[in-house]
Amino acid sequence: MPQIHEKIHELTVGQLAARSGAAVSALHFYEAKGLISSRRTAGNQRRYTRDTLRRVAFIRAAQRVGIPLATIREALAELPEERTPTRDDWARLSEAWRSELDQRIKQLNRLRDHLTDCIGCGCLSLDTCVLSNPDDAFGERLAGSRLLVERPKAG
Ligand code: FES
After folding, report:
1. Do the domain assignments include residue 55?
2. Taking every annotated instance into account, which residue ranges of this chain make up the domain HTH merR-type (predicted)?
């Protein structure tokens, strides 16, 4: 990983990409979405403050666990004066996201368990396909390959 001299207070987009592991295009995207910001030089080149590195690390960590960019942006916007997230901020926010992640894991497990119904099917029916309409997985089903809702056994 390229080292950045301590005296350098601003990074070019290339330096930020090299240090953070994010592609330049991803950094431009984050900026367009208001997750990071830069100033422009006289030659219209972007310059990022050093703490943008931590901000990008925060964004990428949150994305890795499936947090949507809009949620990440809201979390960053709630920090006082939009400061760079600290260790405590990450601890607090990741804790708050736990139930959302648990929910998503549960849904993915359910999809995985019923994926065999879809293999080779191709219908993607909104009424019967658990992949096509996962939020309705426990809704009424009439026909076709479908999620089997557990029912108490008779007798
Ligand atoms: S593709 Fe999922 S049930 Fe047909």
Report:
1. yes
2. 10-78
